[in-house]
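does this look right to u?? inosinic acid version
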Amino acid sequence: MKKVKFATSNPHKVREGNLVGKKFGIDFVQIKQSYPEIRDEDVSKVAEEGGRFVFDKIKEPIIVEDTGLFIEALNGFPGSFSAFVFRKIGNDGILKLLGSEKDRNAEFISAIGYCDENGVKIFKGIVKGSIADEKKGMEGFGYDPIFIPTGYGKTFAEDPDLKSRISHRRKAFQKFCEWLTKEG
Ligand code: IMP
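got this back:
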C-alpha cells in the first residue's frame, strides 16, 4: 500500500477518500496539521494554498481537500465559505434562506490539493443536484441531509452508498489516484 498523508480534521473525508484509494492500493492517512483557509471564492485556490502551507511545514508529500456547496438561487452561496456558514446557520439556516424558492439547483465542488517538492496540483470533482425541502437521513455529515443528487430521489445522508459512488469527493479522489498511479 502506498501511503499518502491527508491533512484534515474530518475523518469522514478520509474514509470517503479511502473507499477510492483502496482500489488503487493507496492508503490515505489522516494528519491533523491545520492550515489557514484563505478567503477566495474558488475552492481550488483554497486547496492550493492549504497544500502549500502544509508541505512547507512537514516537508513531505501531502493532500488537503476543500469542498463547497454552491446554490444557484443564492448566487453560489455558501460556496467556499461553506464551513463557516455551516457552523453559523447549518442546514436549517440554508433551508430558511431558500424558503419556498422553486429553483433549488446546487452543486458540490471538491478540490484536492496535492503538494510535493514539485509544487501543487489540483484535482476537482463536481456533483450536481438540488436542495431538499427538508432534512432527510442520518448518515454522512455536513450538508448531506439536504443534498439530493440529480437523477436520484434521496439525499446523500439517506444513501451513503450512492454518495460513495457519485460524489464530488469520489470524483476528485478518482482523478488524483489515477494521476498518482501513473505519475507518482
Ligand atoms: P471543508 O471542505 O472542510 O471546508 O467543508 C466545508 C463545509 O462543507 C463543512 O461544513 C463540511 O461539513 C461541508 N462538507 C464538506 N464536504 C461535504 C460533503 O461531502 N457533504 C456534505 N457536506 C460537506
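The mean pLDDT is 97. idk if thats expected tbh
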